[in-house]
Amino acid sequence: MIVFSRRQALGLLGGAALVPLTPRPASAAETWETVLPAASFGSYTAFHARWNYLYPWGDQHNGAARMYGSPTDHSQVSLSGGVLTLTANRLSQPDGKSTSHPHAPLWYRSGAVHARDLIVVNDRFPAYEIRGEFQAPTARGCWPAFWLTGADQVWPPETDVLEYVGKPVNLFNTWSDHDGRPDTAEVVERTPVDMPALGKDPGTWHTYRVYIQKLDATDVAVNYHLDGDFYGNPGYHRGRNWVGVPMNLIINLQMGSYASFEQDEPWLNDPQQWAQQPGPTGPVSLRARNVTISRTRVS
User: Which one of the listed residues 30, 33, 129, 163 is annotated catalytic?
Assistant: First the structure.
């Protein structure tokens, strides 16, 4: 366990498939049930019943894209053939600056959605499985993510099931609080997966999965899988103080910001670089299909 700032953690690379440390066995009284079915991208009617547009808190976050999408605006969030497509387009000039640190200039229009159902690990629902298949852009300036974070803007917790930050390296991250320390010193367990080193192209379909299970009164085990293989640190990650905390499931195609620069560049102090926000000039897309949430219920 190492304490990092979020900016430091995003620069770490490497990782390899390892054998998971198995959490406690499920009780015989637990039965699995589907919370979010795989068919939610099958039509706009099904989608609107299960998903909301934008982030839970609005149209901006810590990147260089403002999110768009509504039942009447499918320019950045669209469905076809059971596939959700989020598209980012670069603007001719920034549309202001993000209200979130580090206040990136908003060079892009893009898309984000979040599931209507919340994930809450507790005594009644002690285990969850969240999975989906994705084609992800990973060029410099692209920041796609499939992740959970605390509802009502409570952070942490956070688990990144898919996160590429301007490189073809997926970051399995588990963020927990650290005894009241400030946000710049949260506890993060991370398992980076270098996709080209494994002969994998993130732009083709891959299955990303997280299994979260209650360990004790406060903590959960977090197991990450990519295409059926387990990736750990070296075993399961530990979500500290996650029990009973509601979490949102989010899919977004963020752009710029941390994804535009190498982590050792002094870009925060370079106004010219910061204003340019290196990234794709043409449209890029994140595609998702067969996204599901399942959980166990204690009878």
Answer: 163
The CA distance from 185 to 198, in Å, is 32
Half-sphere exposure of residue 216: CA atoms within 13 angstroms, side-chain side: 6
Q: Is-catalytic flag, 133? A: no
pLDDT digits (tens, 9 = 90+) for 5-56: 343 344 333 333 344 545 555 566 889 999 999 999 999 999 999 999 999 9
Q: Does residue 12 fall inside a structural domain? A: no
> What digits encode the pLDDT tens for the residues 69-110?
999 999 999 999 999 999 999 999 999 999 988 889 999 999
Tokens 């752009």 label which residue?
A: 255
Burial 54-72 (b: 16+ CB within 10 A, else e): bbbeebbbbbbbbbbbeee
Domain-embedded: residue 15: no
Q: Specify the number of domains making up the chain.
A: 1
CATH code for the domain of 259: 2.60.120.200
Q: Is residue 22 part of a domain?
A: no
Domain that holds residue 219: 31-297
Query: Phi and psi (nearest 5°) for 104?
Result: -70, 145
Residues 203-232: tens digit of each pLDDT:
999 999 999 999 999 999 999 999 999 998
For residue 21, being part of any structural domain is answered with: no
| Catalytic-labelled residue, pool 33, 133, 158, 189 | 158
